Amino acid sequence: MKETTKQRYLSLSLSLSHLSYSTNQTSLKNAFSYFGKIAEVKIARDEDTKKPKGYAFVQYSSQDEAVLALEHMDGKIIDGRAIFVEIAKPSCKRISCYPITSGPPQPTPKKPSK
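Structure (tokenized):
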């Protein structure tokens, strides 16, 4: 079965959580570049304050590199905190998560009473 571009991207991306608010892109690149070529590091920030939210994403150029980093970095200490590392899950925009319908729910036919 052929992978879609989105599936391939997700298998290359790691989700990092429980990060220190002082963790920056440089410290993440330094810690994770040992396992392979990093395509991108994104630190989640609050839209209003621009302060880090304590989680980030690291994308590798190959799935093997991402898996290697996952196996070695989950639970490691970065900037004084033990981090959690997992394969990034697909993001779901709120509107697109709802099922597509063609109108309001149809009434269920009632069973005849005996």
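The mean pLDDT is 83. The beta strands are 13-17, 38-45, 52-60, 77-78, 81-82, 84-87.
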